[in-house]
Every structure is written in C-alpha cells, then in structure tokens.
Amino acid sequence: MYSFNHKIKQFAKFFIKIKEFAKLQWELSEKEFKILMRWSWPLIISNLLNNVAPLFVNLIFVGRLSAKELAGAALANTWTYCTMALGTGLANAMDTLVSQAYGANNVKMVGLTVQRASIVSTISCVIVAGLFGVTKQFLIGVNTEEVTAQLAFEYALLLLPGLWFAFEMVVLQKYLQGQGIMWPSIVVGVVLNILNVLFNYVLVVGVNDSYSTLGIKGSALATSISRIIVFFLMIGIIICFKLYKETWSGWSWECTTLQGFKEYLKLGVPASIQHASEGWGFEILTILAGLIDPENHIPLDAHSICYNFTMLTYQFPSGIAIAVSVRVGQLLGQGEEARAKRVSWIAFAISLFFMVIIAVLQYTLRHQIGYIYISNIDDAQDVVDMTATILPIAALFQIFDGGQTIFQGIVRGMGRVITGAIANFIAFYVIAIPVGVLLTFVGDRGVTGLWWGLCCGLVLICIGLAIVIFKVNWVGEVSKAQKRTKSTVFSKSDIENVVNNETEMETKTTSSAVTITAGTDDLNDNDEDEDEDDSEIEDISTPNTPDHSKKKKRSLKNEFRQSLPQVNRCHPQ
C-alpha cells in the first residue's frame, strides 16, 4: 500500500513539473508571438506603401495617356525594380549586423554598420544608374517595339534624381528596424504616396485637367521628387525623436576599414543575389508568358494579373520575415539561443496561418479577382477565365512561398545569407523555370505550365530550408554572432555548462576534504574521542547535502552571470 501511495505521489509531482514547464513555455511563446505581431503589421503596411503602391499609382495616371505609354511605364517599372534590387539587396546585410550588434549591446558597431551601408549604397547607386541608362538597348534586345522602349527609357531617366535617396531610405529603415523601431517606415510610406498622387496629378494630368506636356516623364519625376522629400522627412523624424541617440556617435573613419567592408560585403553580396534573383525569376517567367502566343495577349494578361495579385499577398509573409530576421539576430546577439529557435517556428506558424486563409479566399474568389484588374477591353471574359485557371495553382504555391520567405528571414538573422542565395537560385533557375518551360512549350500546358513549374520550385525549396532550420546548431550560431559583433555574451547553454562544471568541482573538493579529515582523525585520535571525531566529520560533510549543493549551484550561476556584460537592449521598443 505504501509503495502504491509513493508512486502516486511521484506521478503527481512529475505531472506538476510538466504542467509548470508547459506553462513557462506557453508564456515565453506568447511573449515572442506578441513581439512578432507588434513588429510585423507595421512592416507589412510599410512594404505595401513603399514598394508596391507608388508603382500602381504611376500606372493609373500614365494609363490615362495612351496604351503605348502605359506599356512603356510598365516595362520601365519592371526593369528599374530588377536593377534596383541589386542595390537595395546589399542593405539586407544590416538585418544581420545591426540586429546582432544591438542585441549584444555593441552600439558602436551599429553606427559603423550604418555608415558602411551608406557608402556601399552610394557606390551601388552609380552602377544601377548606369543600368538605367541602357534601358532602351535592353528592351529592344528582348524584342520590344522601339517606340515603347524609348518611352520606357525616358521614364527610367526621370527616376534617376530620386535613386540615391531611395537607396539611402532603405539604409535608414534597416537601421531603425534592427533596433525594433518600426513606426517611422509607416509614416514616410503614407507621406510618400500622398505626395506621389499629388505630383502625378500636377505633372501628368495638369492642374486644369488638361494633359501635361511632360506625359510619361511627369509620372517618373513625381516619384523622384516624392522620394527626395520623404528622405529628409525620415532624417527629421530620427533627429526630432532622438532615435539616433543610443547608437550613433557621429561619422568615423573607422567605418572605412577594409575588414569592416569585407564583413559587410560578405553578407551583403549574397543577400543582394538572394533578393534580386527572385525578382528576375518572376520577370523571366513574364517574358516566357509573352512568348506562348505572340499574336494573342490573353496568356500574358492573365499571367500579369496573377503575378500582380500574388505580389500584393506576398507582403504579408515578407513583413513577418523582416520581423523574425531582426528578432533572431537580436536574440543571438544576446545569447538567447533557445528563444531564437522558438521565435523562428512561431513566425513560421503565423505565416502558415495567414497564407492558408489567403489561399482559401483566393481559390474561392478566383472567378471574381480578374475583374478587379480588367473589365472594359476586348476579350475581357477570356482573360478572366484564364486567370481563374491560374489562381488555384498560385494559391497552392503561396502557402509554400510564405514558408520559404520566413525561412529566408531566419537565415538572414543568423547571417547565413549564402544559404538563402543558393536556395533562391535553385528554386527559380534549376527547378521553376526549366520545369515551367518543359510543361508550357513541350507539354503544351500553356501559361499554367509556368505556374506549375514555379509551384514545384518553391515547394521543394521550402522543404529544404525547413530541414536546414531544423538542423541548426543554435549554440554555434550564438558563437558566430559573438565573433561577428566582437561581443563577450555567452549562450545560455555555455552558462549552464560552466555552472555545472564549477558545482561538480566544488563537490569533488568537499568530498576530498571529508576523506582526508576522516583519515587523519583515525590515525591521530584515540578511542575516547571517536564520538567527537564523528561529529567533526558530520559537520564537514554537511555542505555536500543536496540542499546545500543546489544553493551553491544557484550562487555560482548568479556570480557567473554578474561577471558577464549586462545586455538589456534586446527588448522591443
């Protein structure tokens, strides 16, 4: 009976421990969930306002001019987006460097990273400007009509005045995001779009509702002027709210060291390839869609509508990916490897939830979505019907696209950007495009073949990146972050190992002292003092009791932690 009751008590204690452990894990997960959600929604809105909305506004205004000018603006948007991705992608190195340095309390490194990013962005701006200059030659080279190519060139040329300001705006946004400050990006995004609409109206339509002589050039100039103004607005916000105070100590020649640029470009170049290869992949698929039937615009129109719609929905996982990239970087910089692992899978779960809902809605409304984009042209119904055949495939691939986007953000936060670059290259250029070409032009699947190829590529890469994340040595990633940020922050596992070793050594030392004392007493003391000797041994042995051992372990742990640099900057603002 006693044995049975004893087992019941043991089971009850075990159950209570499991319950307490589960409660603790839930509280920690809930905290990280709230942080991710608080950071993600501003980033989603910011992505829409800064990256997507201005392009749509320009096309709406240019569309009032003529079909040729609309085509020219659309092609110019495509070309300039793909080339600018090379420069803005370099700034993604800041996702790793700023967040890890901030988490490790190395505020000096945060400022130096911003300075290096600004210099690199300026150099890349010159290169991208040169690519803008060959817009016409490139478009003619891919069989674009010369008149349309000339219009696209004129549009790209008038984007040049705002190009440097656009690049530096990305640097400022990354600087703030790495510290968990997200709201300024929304403010400048709202102002950017308001200004872009106003300047488009003035320069394209005209104040008297008569078409301006600037034509398509007016729309590009409107965007450039808007970008210049919001850049200075962002500078004003940073200064007025003193968002620089903690991490900026002024310009320093130290930012120009060869080692510093080497470290930045080691992360920036793969990040740029990772960022640009995805955009290029989609544009290649768009060109292929136009080659399906050069005399029939329906496949290209349907593909463009689906691509446009998926680009909008993509902003959801993209915002979450930036948030988890920053959070993982901060936690690794702080030495919180367990929390970094936890927040990674929480971000994946959030993305999966949103993308499943979007996929279901997309499938349900597949026959209506086409009408949002097209209604008053010839063959409108044929375009809508073909769009409805593509959207279910797009709905499926978006679930996995959301997942791989989150995983890309996680590896960026770790600093393993080469992994992300290789994954994107394989997804688009080894799997998606070749499979799409085979299905479309050999298998006679039409435009849906391109989307099935895209689906295959993203599904396989999502699974591959999930395996990579699952096998990550998080303690090792803390060590890499420590080396990268020149920090003395230790992982929680390292702390536990040191404390356990110290406790074990203390226990062995105490036990040895007991043995030596006991042996000495046996040799030197007479029989009349045996009781007193036993009492002494008992007194010496007392520190080795379980309760005292636990207290000693806690004491050592506290002493060890107090000896470390205090890191408290990882908390979200």
UniProtKB/TrEMBL annotation:
Bilayer-spanning residue ranges: 39-61, 117-140, 152-171, 183-204, 224-244, 343-363, 383-400, 421-443, 449-474
Keywords attached to this entry: Membrane, Transmembrane, Transmembrane helix
Topology within the bilayer: Multi-pass membrane protein
InterPro entries documented for this protein: MATE_euk (IPR045069), MATE_fam (IPR002528)
Any one GO molecular function term: antiporter activity
Record's keyword annotation contains tRNA-binding: no
Localization (cell): Membrane
Domain of life where this protein originates: Eukaryota
Biological processes, Gene Ontology terms: xenobiotic detoxification by transmembrane export across the plasma membrane
GO cellular component: membrane
Main localization of the protein described in the UniProt heading: membrane
Compositional bias ranges of the Acidic residues kind: 522-539
Family: Belongs to the multi antimicrobial extrusion (MATE) (TC 2.A.66.1) family.
PANTHER family attached to this UniProt entry: MULTIDRUG RESISTANCE PROTEIN
NCBIfam families for the chain: matE
Protein name per its UniProtKB record: Multi antimicrobial extrusion family protein
Natural source organism: Polysphondylium violaceum
